[in-house]
Each structure stands twice: as C-alpha cells, then as structure tokens.
C-alpha cells in the first residue's frame, strides 16, 4: 500500500500503542478502555466539529476536525484497518458525482 506522509506515520504510532503503557500514552490509555470507548470518542469529536462549524472561527474548526480525524484513525487501527485504505476509497470515488452514484443504487 502506498504510504502517505504524516498520515502513515501517525497510523504507525497509533498501531504501536496497542502494546504500550497506558500511563505514558494517551492512545494506549484509550485502547485500554475498550472498543466502545474508542467509538464513543469518535462520536464526541464529531459533535465538537458540528459545534465548531457554527461559530465562525476557522482555527477552532481545523482543531476539532484534526481531533475527529485522529480519533477516527484510532478507530480504524482498532479494527485492524489503515487510513490509507480510506484514502484509496476516496480516490476510487474521485470524479463520480454523488448524485450520479446515488441514482445508480438499486434500492
Ligand atoms: N494527534 C494526536 C492527538 N490529537 C488529539 N489528541 C488527544 O486527544 C484527547 C482528546 O481531547 P478531549 O479534550 O476531547 O478529551 P480529554 O478530556 O482530554 O480525554 P478523555 O479523557 O475525554 O478521553 C486529548 O488528550 C488530546 O491531547 C491526540 N493525542 C495523540 N495524537 C497523536 O498520537 C501520537 C501518540 O500519542 P500518545 O499515545 O499519547 O503518545 C502523538 O504523538 C500524536 O501524533
């Protein structure tokens, strides 16, 4: 799989935290709380993105989207997946209008 600078490096660190000490690593601490805690964090961060999107502060929105992307990467790692796979899916969709894709669905 093609590596994407920054994204691949952070994903490597997240993966490595599965065996790390929860006292010295935020990611290890989050993993130690179990799968539901990781998913709950994604939900919380998504809500914070919605709230930041309402207050006309670009820096705040960037900060919260970074939190959401980061915690989504933790959720992917938990499922044994990589962010490069998500980027490949976006690449696969590139150039296909969402309206065309929706109209082509069977149900
Ligand atoms: N990108 C991030 C990153 N973004 C956000 N966060 C943390 O995510 C947490 C979310 O903040 P919140 O205020 O929403 O929640 P909180 O109250 O602090 O935490 P909870 O107890 O509610 O879970 C904060 O502790 C942030 O510091 C991150 N922690 C780590 N990383 C990356 O992950 C790497 C590994 O981190 P460690 O495992 O801590 O070494 C780091 O080197 C970074 O590259």
From TrEMBL:
One of its GO terms (molecular function) is ATP binding. Pathway: Amino-acid biosynthesis; L-histidine biosynthesis; L-histidine from 5-phospho-alpha-D-ribose 1-diphosphate: step 2/9. InterPro entries: HisE, PRib-ATP_PPHydrolase-like. The lineage of its organism: Bacteria, Pseudomonadati, Pseudomonadota, Betaproteobacteria, Burkholderiales. Its EC number is 3.6.1.31. HAMAP family: HisE. Gene3D superfamilies: MazG-like. It comes from the Bacteria. GO terms for cellular component: cytoplasm. It is found in: Cytoplasm. Its main location: cytoplasm. The gene is hisE. This is Phosphoribosyl-ATP pyrophosphatase. It catalyses: 1-(5-phospho-beta-D-ribosyl)-ATP + H2O = 1-(5-phospho-beta-D-ribosyl)-5'-AMP + diphosphate + H(+). Keywords: Amino-acid biosynthesis, ATP-binding, Cytoplasm, Histidine biosynthesis, Hydrolase, Nucleotide-binding. It comes from Turicimonas muris. Belongs to the PRA-PH family.
């Amino acid at each position: 799989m093609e590596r994407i600078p920054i994204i691949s490096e952070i994903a490597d660190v997240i993966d490595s935290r599965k065996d790390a000490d929860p006292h010295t690593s935020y990611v290890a601490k989050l993993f130690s709380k179990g799968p539901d805690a990781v998913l709950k964090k994604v939900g919380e961060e998504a809500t914070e993105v919605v709230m930041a999107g309402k207050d006309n502060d670009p820096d705040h929105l960037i900060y919260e989207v970074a939190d959401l992307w980061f915690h989504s990467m933790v959720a992917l790692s938990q499922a044994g997946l990589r962010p490069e796979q998500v980027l490949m899916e976006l690449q696969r969709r590139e150039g296909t209008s969402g309206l065309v894709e929706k109209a082509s669905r069977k149900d």
